């Protein structure tokens, strides 16, 4: 029985043509080493490179979708739980039967104070936390704090709710700053992986022209905010499927309400103190809170498992090595930049308008006239309008840059004028369709505002050393605006609309003024980012060229040449040989190794 021939020829064995192959090279034990251990003969380097970068691009898309879904689930759980908690605690019967004289209204007021006041100090610690933990791990930590806030509602006491609310307030600005930084970095990575073949004359990779990542950034921001605005709809699921079954109708809750809309004062003046016709069972509440806790835990897993790093490890080292004192100071130094100063009114308005959607339109116009049982559907209309309009930001691929942002401001300006003269009648449902249209249109303006601002910041500040500072400043001003709304919640509706109108006009004029300066070529004054100062030179600094040098280093060069080492014997062990660089142990001992020949 003859032996079957091997499927693949064995290395070192004679081929079918004898001891030489078709090219005349020996194929036996005398074959050259390169022929035995060289590359696979059918290996196509260009095809493998194309597949590699395609996998990289798919990884970036996975990161964007995971971060967007994680943010949507986190805020959906947070807003849904907070809304349900405040409605239950508002009812007098629920408070007396469930908690007696524990003082739930006082606990709720301190909890809201912790959520709204604590972010005022975020400018002092947010850049330090992002540089210390890294962008991805800061996102994970902040989402974990949101999950902690959800878990404290299993045992509602002062010492559980208030500390968790303070921790949540501390995490708001770091979460949003790291999210904005993360999406911008993903757009830059996607551009890098899509244009990997662009090289200069020496075969080296070219630095991409400024603004070349803008189309990808616009698409990624549209995806992110399309997901995020769905969180307002997700937050209404506990209301629709659970709490609405326990609520009184509008004839009971609005019995003493006399004025709504532009004629109202404060929040729901005259609203009935009892809104629950029967109390929910404790077991049912635990089931709802357990579902919310599971969703919050799922958001943590999405960020942890599916979101990749925003920077390479060596880039993270460089970002930290500029000095913690400089990291602390740089957000304040960026105030020199006229672009940021011109955008501050838009940052403030961005905080005003999202709170007005939730308290002004939803409560002052909606609940005040059509009842608490329709609150969820009003916010769903706002959410769906904002989510769909986030994709309208893609029009920025073909339209001039100011168009989406100014269009969103125009929609809000028109709606604000209409709301200024409209006072819906309480307990009348004939005008309810107007409320849903107004909520959806306000969502359209909100989406264009949020998408346009985040995209604009990512285009104006594309240096990786500045992005976390810029997004920290943006969301800190948003937090200041939200705190101002919290302080002025008892003002008349006309005063709120007037402040909103003045801020919107000032923001639009200031933004157009900034664009005019940019067209004239006025150079912004940006603070210098210090060069990384590494205390111990590790393995990654032994090479001649630093492949991870920052953009600022690449532009300005290395500065002065290094000082030549002094002649004579050096302390430490003798180097093992000539023509090599010292190992880290020799550097730690003080020796610089032999000079290269």
Layout of helices and strands:
Elements: H1 33-37, H2 45-90, H3 92-99, H4 104-117, H5 122-133, H6 135-151, H7 158-194, H8 214-234, H9 237-241, H10 250-253, H11 282-306, H12 313-320, H13 324-333, H14 338-370, H15 375-390, H16 402-420, H17 432-460, H18 467-487, H19 493-520, H20 551-556, H21 584-588
Helix pairs in contact: 2-6, 2-7, 2-8, 2-11, 4-7, 5-6, 5-7, 5-13, 5-18, 6-7, 6-11, 7-8, 7-18, 8-15, 8-17, 14-15, 14-17, 14-18, 14-19, 15-17, 16-17, 16-19
Structural features, described:
The protein is 62% helix and 0% strand. The protein has 597 residues and is mostly helical. It has one domain: MFS general substrate transporter like domains (Growth Hormone, Chain: A), CATH 1.20.1250. Helix 5 (122-133) packs across helix 6 (135-151) and helix 6 (135-151) packs antiparallel against helix 11 (282-306). The model is unreliable at 11-20, 541-550, 556-578 and 591-597 (pLDDT under 50).
Describe the sheet with the most strands: none
CATH superfamily: MFS general substrate transporter like domains
| Count of helical regions | 21
For the secondary structure, the number of strands is 0
Cα end-to-end separation: 66 Å
Oligomer: single chain
CATH class category name: Mainly Alpha
CATH architectural designation: Up-down Bundle
Structural class by helix and strand composition: mainly alpha
Q: Write the element-wise H/E pattern from the N-terminal end onward.
A: HHHHHHHHHHHHHHHHHHHHH
Mean pLDDT over the residues:
83
The third-level CATH topology is: Growth Hormone, Chain: A
Work out the helicity level: 55-70%
Shape: globular
Strand content: under 5%
Subcellular location: Cytoplasmic vesicle, Phagosome; Endoplasmic reticulum membrane; Endosome; Lysosome
Membrane topology: Multi-pass membrane protein
Organism: Chlorocebus sabaeus
GO molecular function: Toll-like receptor binding
